[in-house]
Design a protein that fits this description.
Number of helices: 4
Strand content: under 5%
Length: 83
């Protein structure tokens, strides 16, 4: 169990996050840090870099469409059933 009251940093495995989760996590981090003074937390330079990437983060979205290989896969499955 993680004790969220401790002052330890929590490691997040970014490779296991989905694209939409990264966007949400980034906005939550920005919101939390803005509530406090990044200068006093001594993270202002890094925080400024994160905020500067906000326009790029907005572009993270998932295209909800069929995969381009779906048609070819369907043909291959149909051919396999005919054999």
């Amino acid at each position: 169990m993680i004790n969220y009251n401790s002052k330890d940093l929590i490691s997040i495995p970014y490779s296991r996050l989905r694209k939409l989760e990264i966007k949400q996590l980034t906005y939550q981090v920005i919101d939390v840090v803005e509530k406090y003074n990044p200068q006093e937390l001594q993270i202002k330079p890094i925080f400024d870099l994160l905020v500067a990437q906000k326009p790029n983060i907005v572009g993270l979205k998932v295209q909800y469409a069929k995969h381009p290989l779906t048609g070819k896969l369907k043909v291959c499955v149909q051919n396999a059933q005919c054999i």
